[in-house]
Structures are given as C-alpha cells and as structure tokens.
C-alpha cells in the first residue's frame, strides 16, 4: 500500500509538473502570438499616425518662424501625442471595447446594451418578444446611475445620443476618403523636391494611380495585406527616427527641452491668435488615432498597445524632434518640412519607403471604413451592400466591393479636384478633431454609466480632453472655407442617406406592428372556405416577432393557401457584436398545426455563414430538438417530426414581402420626400435573402403596398 501510495504521489507530482509545463508553454505561445500580432498590426492600424510627419508642418500657416516658435510647436505635438495617443486611446479607449469591437458605433452599442437607451427597431423588436431570449441582451444594470435613468426617460436625449454616434460614424467614413488622399499625395510630392520642374498635375496623376492600385488590393483581405505591409511599416518606424536622431545631433541637440509645457504657454503668449491658428496643423500629428480604436475588431488590444507604445510613439517623438531641429536651423523650409530634413545620400531610399508607408497609411482607414459600413448595414442604418468576410477565423475582417470602389472614386476625385495638400489638410484636421471630441463625449458616458468611475476621475478626464480637443476644434473650424467644408459635405450626404434609410425602415416597422397578424387572426384566415394547406416546407420571412407581418394575411387572402409546414422566420441583428452559437437559432411552436416560429439572431460583428441547404438543415435540426424536448407525447412528437420531414422532401420555398409605400394625398411634404428617397435606395440595394444562399428558384416575393 505504501508503495502504491508513493507511486500515486509520484504520478500526481508528474501530472502537476506536466500541467505547469503546459501552462508555461501556453503562456509563451500566447506571448509569441501577441508579438506576431503586434508586428502585423503595424501594417494596418497605425498608418495615419506614422505618416503624419509627411504633412504636419506643410499644413501650418507659419510666417517668419523663430526658434521659440518651433520649440512651442514641437511641445504641442509631443503633449498631443502623449495625452491623446498614449493616455486617451491606448490606455482608456481600447478598454471600452464592445466584445472586441471598437469605434463610435461600438461605444453607442455598449451603452445601449448595458442600459435601455437604444431606439433602434432591431433592439425594440427583440425586447417585445418575451418568448425569445438572448443572454447578451440581459446585461442591464438594475442599480442605474442618475444619468442612465435620465436617458431612459428622455426620448430627446436618446435621439441626441444617436445623432452623436451617427455623426462620429459619418466623420470616420469621411476620414477614410481623406486619409488615402493626403497620405499618398504628401508622399508623392517628394518627387518635386530634387526635381522642381515636375509639375503639380504629374504628382496628382501619380498619386491617383497609386490609390487605384491600393483599392484593387483590398479584395485580398486585411490579413494578407497587413502581412505584406508590416515590413514596410517596420522599415519606416526604424528609418525615420534614425534620421531624426542624426538631425538632432547635427542641428539642435537641445531640442528635448521643448518637452516642458512652458514652451506651449510661451508660444500662445507671444503669438496670440496666430498661435491658436497653428493648432489647425498640429492636430494632424494625431491623425489615425480613431482608426487605432475602430480597427480593434481586426487586432486584439494587447497587440495594438505593444505596437503603439514600443514602436510608433517613440518613432514619432524622435522623428518630429529631428524635423524641428532641422527647421530651427532652416526656418523657411517648413513648406517641405519632411523631405528637406532627409540627408541627400539617403533621400531616394527614404522616398521609396515613405511612399510605400503612405499606401499603408491609407489601409488603416479603408479597413476601418469597411467595418463601420458593415456595422451600419446590419444595424439597419445603411442600405444593404455586399459584405465579404475575408478571414475564416476573424469575423471582423470584412470587405465590401461597392464601398471599396466608391471610396476609390472619391479619393481620386479629392486629389484631382482639390490637389492642393493644404486644402486637403484643412479638411483632414476638421475630421480628426471632431471624431476625437465625439469619442471623448461617448467615453465619458461609458465611464459614468457603465464603469462607475469615481466622479473626480471622470471630471479630470472630461475637463482635460474636452478642453484640449475643443480648442483644436475651434481652430480647425476657421478653415471651413479653405477646404474644411469637404468633410462636412461628405458627412452631410452620408447622414442624409443613413437618416433616410432609418426613417423608411422605422415607418415600415411601425406599420407592421400596427397591422400585424396575430395567431387568432391567422387561425381565422386558415379556416376560411377555399384556403388549402399545400405540400412543401416554407420559410416565410417576417420583420416582427410578437406577431406576423401583414404580408402573411395579404398572401393567404390572395393565394388561398399556406404550406403544410410554415416556419415564420425573422433575421434579427442585435445591438451586440456577437451572439453565442447556441443562441443564434431560436425556434418555438406557434399553436397551430405545422406552424412554427424561428429567429436567426446575429450581432454586428458576426458572419451570417448559413448557406442554402445548411441553413435549412440547421433550422430543422433545432426544430426537431425543440419538439422532442417539449412534447409530452413521444408518439405525437414523432408524427410531427415525420410531417415536416415529408414537407421538406416535397420542396423548400422562401417567401418574403416586397413592400412599398403608398403615399396618399394626406401625407406631409416631409413624408413624401423622405419616403420617396427611401424607396429609391430600397429599390437599388441588395436583397436580404441572398445572404442566406437561397437559390433564385426557391425564392418567392409577395408585393404589397403599405399606406404611409
């Protein structure tokens, strides 16, 4: 016994050692994966940040600059990078993810999920269906803060919050147009430094060609593109700070005394209004920070933090220091502040790297734009476009062909029409500052209502960042007439599209809820003379869950039939990033023979990966399990299962309503305009059914007019 006991103890010790060894190996593997991910992150997330030295100084309205002016400017850029880049985004904003997703819509979603403040129809539809559950939605805090209760009671406040989130989204999409334009154009302008005879039109044409090639590469996906781009960004983040160190040692070794905030105060004291206007250029040093947050769905938090804190941040600090050191000795070269501080012996290698880095910079906002558009589509705020998932293991990596080519056309148009880098820089500054300010407001609400951060910390955060970013906004708004109107025009067009689509969908939802068909009405319709139950399995799509779409009554009245097994199916996109696999398909019996309900639940970061027959099989498997679990009579359960199996063999059809608004004479002019605009968009957008891989011969569309 003692020997056996000793042997058992030895086995236990060995098992424990093996377990500890496995844990160590797993930790090492995770660290290695994080480091690899951090390296790949360089190729996508930080594009706008790392290429900002190309266009910050040229965008500044400097007249007769002095040494003290440049020291003050560098101090502003250093503290902007530190406060906004390190403290706000890397340390705070990345922790406000919504199940791994970032950006303004994710912050809004986080607030809606934790509190009952959403006004989305998809959210309301889910809450009204008590028979269906989703654990992701039941996260509401019972002990709500006073601010949370205020938003729940005040519809106007909830609409203002939604407007802020939509504005941030529109601005970020506008950023996706301006970042590629200014990054590539600023890089290509380096051709004209050694060759002054190179014309402006040639630089613009080369920039446009580079952008066209970049957009054509998008279909290969973020993972492949980032793997290819990471070496470029690695070279950029090593070369430019080395040039910066050389410039510091040669021109102005004491540059780092400018880290003292004294030089900021001294600049504003001496320059007054002129110093305030300089902020319109210095704000560009932090451009791309919102993409850092919005691209969170493509990369994990740790990899972004490691890449920024240990690579991007020190690289930018040294590069800007080197540029400033050069400009202190050559004060009138700020128009070409980047390329002129490059030593002639390495000019062309740096030019090639900077051009390639500018291409990568464009990628960060392009991928963020794809993510934001997808979120908007699945939340029913944007007309349906094709969304392709380019990675099998990262559902956040998406690509939209229509959006890609529209962005390409707009980027090329911005370069060819507004070829002056200063005009594009002014527009860029407006976008950057406004998006940062919106993120600050939403983050403050998250800190108060969800994190329950101590009030003094919330006040400290809000006062510092709202003041800094508010001052930046006030400075860039003076540039509205000098190109700053471009993002407002883009955002206005996008906002009209989003509002028009949302308004039309909301009116349809209201009509369907008012004229819905309940179970008693369905039973009455099926009992009318001449109505037949025909063979086949039918998926009848409805937008509401606590009843059936009016199209059902319209169909039965006119066709005088309903299939023997009919599954009323709702595709429900929820205000959560992802829905657990076991909760995606929820089925139940609706009280009539052969009539069932089914809800397909998806979050905005989920992939709708049900294809054709797989979709049918998964739903019928769930239905079979439901019948077996809840039926008290095994024989009746078997008969019911056999019935829908026979219907499935007879054929499968998918029926959806093709509804339009009938605008009568009593409608207001506002309804006439908005509903007509919605109908134009609805007629030209993609159908919801092809996302499920339903073959055209199996699809039936039932037309019906909804009276506005």
From TrEMBL:
Residues 538-706 form the K+ potassium transporter C-terminal domain. The chain crosses the membrane at residues 37-58, 70-87, 160-178, 198-217, 229-249, 275-294, 306-326, 346-366, 403-421, 427-451, 458-478, 484-503. One of its GO terms (molecular function) is potassium ion transmembrane transporter activity. Residues 38-522 form the K+ potassium transporter integral membrane domain. Its main location: membrane. Signal peptide: none annotated. GO terms for cellular component: plasma membrane. It is a multi-pass membrane protein. It comes from the Eukaryota. Pfam families: K_trans, K_trans_C. It is found in: Cell membrane; Membrane. Keywords: Ion transport, Membrane, Potassium, Potassium transport, Transmembrane, Transmembrane helix, Transport. Potassium transporter. Belongs to the HAK/KUP transporter (TC 2.A.72.3) family. This is Potassium transporter. The gene is HAK17.
């Amino acid at each position: 016994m003692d020997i056996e006991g000793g042997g058992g103890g030895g086995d236990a010790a060995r098992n424990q050692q093996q377990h500890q060894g496995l844990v160590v190996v797993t930790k090492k593997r995770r660290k290695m994966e994080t480091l690899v991910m951090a390296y790949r992150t360089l190729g996508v997330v930080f594009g706008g940040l790392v290429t900002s030295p190309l266009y910050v100084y040229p965008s500044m309205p400097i007249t007769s600059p002095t040494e003290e002016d440049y020291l003050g400017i560098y101090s502003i850029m250093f503290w902007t990078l530190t406060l906004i880049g390190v403290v706000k985004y890397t340390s705070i904003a990345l922790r406000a993810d919504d199940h791994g997703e970032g950006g303004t819509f994710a912050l809004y979603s986080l607030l809606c999920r934790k509190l009952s403040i959403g006004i989305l129809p998809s959210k309301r539809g889910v809450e009204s269906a008590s028979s269906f559950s989703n654990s992701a939605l039941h996260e509401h805090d019972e002990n709500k803060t006073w601010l949370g209760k205020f938003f729940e009671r005040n519809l106007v406040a909830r609409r203002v919050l939604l407007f802020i989130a939509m504005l941030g989204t529109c601005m970020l999409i506008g950023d996706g147009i301006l970042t590629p334009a200014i990054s590539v154009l600023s890089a290509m302008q380096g051709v004209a430094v050694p060759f002054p005879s190179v014309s402006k039109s040639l630089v613009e044409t080369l920039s446009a060609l580079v952008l066209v090639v970049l957009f054509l590469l998008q279909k290969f996906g973020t993972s492949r593109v980032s793997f290819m781009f990471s070496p470029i960004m690695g070279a950029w983040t090593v070369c430019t700070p080395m040039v910066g160190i050389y410039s510091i040692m040669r021109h102005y070794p004491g540059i780092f005394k400018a880290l003292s905030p004294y030089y900021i105060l001294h600049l504003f004291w001496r320059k007054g209004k002129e110093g305030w206007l300089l902020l319109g250029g210095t704000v560009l040093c932090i451009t791309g920070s919102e993409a850092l947050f919005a691209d969170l769905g493509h990369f994990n938090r740790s990899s972004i933090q490691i890449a920024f804190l240990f690579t991007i941040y020190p690289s930018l600090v040294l590069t800007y220091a080197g540029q400033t050191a050069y400009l202190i000795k050559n004060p009138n070269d700020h128009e070409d502040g980047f390329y002129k501080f490059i030593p002639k012996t390495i000019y062309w290698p740096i030019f090639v790297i900077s051009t390639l880095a500018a291409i990568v910079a464009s990628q960060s906002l392009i991928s963020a734009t794809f993510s934001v558009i997808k979120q908007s589509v699945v939340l029913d705020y944007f007309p349906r476009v094709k969304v392709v998932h380019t990675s099998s293991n990262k559902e956040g990596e998406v690509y939209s062909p229509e959006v890609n080519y529209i962005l390409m056309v707009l980027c090329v148009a911005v370069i060819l029409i507004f070829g002056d880098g200063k005009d594009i820089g002014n527009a860029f500054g407006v976008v950057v500052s406004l998006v940062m300010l919106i993120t600050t407001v939403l983050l403050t609400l998250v800190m108060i209502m969800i994190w329950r951060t101590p009030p003094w910390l919330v006040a400290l955060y809000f006062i510092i960042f709202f003041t800094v970013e508010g001052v930046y906004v006030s400075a860039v708004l003076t540039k509205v007439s000098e190109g700053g109107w471009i993002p407002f025009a883009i955002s206005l067009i996008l906002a009209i599209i989003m509002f028009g689509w949302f308004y039309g969908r909301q009116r349809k939802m209201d009509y369907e809820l008012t004229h819905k068909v309940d179970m008693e009405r369905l039973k009455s319709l099926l009992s009318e003379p001449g109505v037949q139950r025909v063979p086949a399995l039918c998926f009848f799509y409805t937008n509401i869950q606590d009843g059936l779409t009016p199209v059902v009554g319209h169909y039965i009245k006119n066709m005088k039939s309903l299939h023997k097994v009919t599954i009323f199916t709702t595709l429900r996109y929820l205000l959560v990033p992802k829905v657990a696999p076991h909760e995606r398909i929820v089925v139940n019996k609706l009280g009539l023979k052969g009539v069932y309900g089914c809800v397909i639940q998806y979050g905005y970061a989920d992939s709708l990966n049900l294809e054709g027959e797989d979709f049918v099989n998964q739903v019928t498997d769930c239905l079979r399990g439901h019948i077996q679990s809840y039926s008290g009579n095994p024989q009746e359960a078997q008969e019911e299962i056999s019935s829908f199996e026979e219907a499935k063999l007879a054929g499968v059809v998918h029926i959806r309503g093709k509804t339009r608004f009938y605008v009568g004479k009593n409608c207001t002019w506002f309804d006439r305009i908005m509903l007509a605009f919605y109908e134009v968009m609805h007629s030209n957008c993609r159908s919801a059914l092809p996302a499920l891989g339903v073959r055209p011969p199996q699809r039936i569309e039932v037309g019906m007019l909804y009276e506005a």
